[in-house]
Every structure is written in structure tokens, then in C-alpha cells.
Fold this protein.
Amino acid sequence: MTAAHRLDGRVVAAEIDARTTDDVARLTAAGIVPTLAVVVPTHDEGTAWYVRSIARAGKRLGITCLVDTLHGADAATLAGHLKARSADPAVHGVICQTPLPAGVTLADLGTAIAPVKDVDGANPTSLGLLATGSAEAFAPATAQAVLEILRHEQVPLAGRRVVVVGRSTVVGKPAALLLLAEHATVTVCHSRSTDLPALCREADVLVAAVGRPGLIGVDHVRPGAVVVDVGTNPTPDGGLAGDVDPAVAAVAGALTPVPGGVGPVTTALLHRHTALAAARASGR
């Protein structure tokens, strides 16, 4: 049996970065330095690695990344800091990294980020704008990464059955909205869905975004289906595992790797959104 076609996110990210580089050069020539503020509220090795990768990519693209470490801060302090960054005219994008302190939710903090600078779609207003199809809304970068990969691979979506496993406001729900906008017929599944394997097998395109390593097995995938694995689950050896069992590669028509699939595209989109926010703020 032929192995699934590899959907390489690094290729997609490189194409997005090329557009961002052009935009940043144009803005910089006009005296505008696109700037992203990354607020880090807790100590977490995985988060620290990701933030470093964001900063490295930003430096390469000409985007300034301000990393604000607020370990141990309470919800009020975090919200106040996010509001201050949002009010700073020199800052064009603001994100708040997870995990958050105990008892604090992203919904609590998202409203502190101005929608025009909400480059990772954390403010509920951004999700509402996304739902209504507003061109001004920034979708959560990971959710948009799913669509960017499918577009790059020219996967037909109009009229096709798409199953999204996961209903978070970070990936599942916004990904479903983006796919609906492409005229796909979308089913959203979750932990209480009855007979998940049967529902997943209906999919022409299957998106796994639940944060449970190996949840999606061979019995979940219709032969030839396109599978996008959003999972980034830490492994004991310091690596990453997806939500999709690697054995699915023997059944699927195409599959994103972990790592190297959705992750690079997510980072590229955060910087792309920051450059777009800077252009909008400057009227350029």
C-alpha cells in the first residue's frame, strides 16, 4: 500500500514568509518597524522553546519581537499588561502564550487585547468577526494554518465533507468557520460524540485538534482521505507526537507530519498577521 503524501508545512511557511518579507521591507522603508509583543505568563519548557522560535523567525523577517515574561502574575496584572501593549502605538501585534496560571482562562485575558492587534484571534470579538466573514478579523494562526496547507495542496473543499475533531476556540471552532467559508460541509466532533471513528470515516478531509496523542487511528480514516494533524503533544524523550497515529499514513491519501506540518505555518502566520496589522495601522 502506498504511503500517504506528506503535507510539508515548511514549504507553505516559506511561501508565506516570502510575502511577509516583501511587506516588511516596504514598511521599513517608510520608517515603520512591525512589532509583535509576546506575553508569557508561566514557566513552561515547551512554551519557552516556541517563543524562542517566534523571536528567531521574527528577526529573520525583520519583525521586532518583544518577549514579556510575567511568571506568576495574576489575572488582573496580565490583563493590565495586555491592555498596555495594545495601547502602545509602536506595537502592532499582541499575543498571550499558554499555559496560563491556574484559574485564569484565555477568555478572561482575550478581551484585553485590542482586536486590531489581536494577531492570534484570542479576543471573542475576533471570533465573532470571523464568524460573520469580516475581512478585518485575524483568525487564530493555528486554525488558519490548516486552511493554508489545504489551499497550498489544492485540496478541493467546496461541497466536500470535512470533519474537525476538537471544538476549542483556538483551533476547532475557528477552523470550522474558515472551512465553512470555503463552502465545505463541516462536522465538528468532540469528547461526547457518539461513535467517533464512524463520524471521522465520513470525511474527505479530517482535521485532528484535540491534544490527545494517537487518538486518531486507522479505523478513523477513510482510505484516501486528507488528514491534517494539529496535535503537538510532548513526549518523554523531548519530542512531539501528533493526535494522529503514524500508522494512518498507510491509509490516508495525504497527511501532515508532526513536527513539520501545522507548526511552521502557525509561526509564519503570526508574523504575517503582525505585518498586516502594521500596514493597516499606518494606512499602507
About this structure: Residues 9-29 form the longest helix (21 residues). The chain has a mean pLDDT of 95. The chain has nine helices and eleven strands.
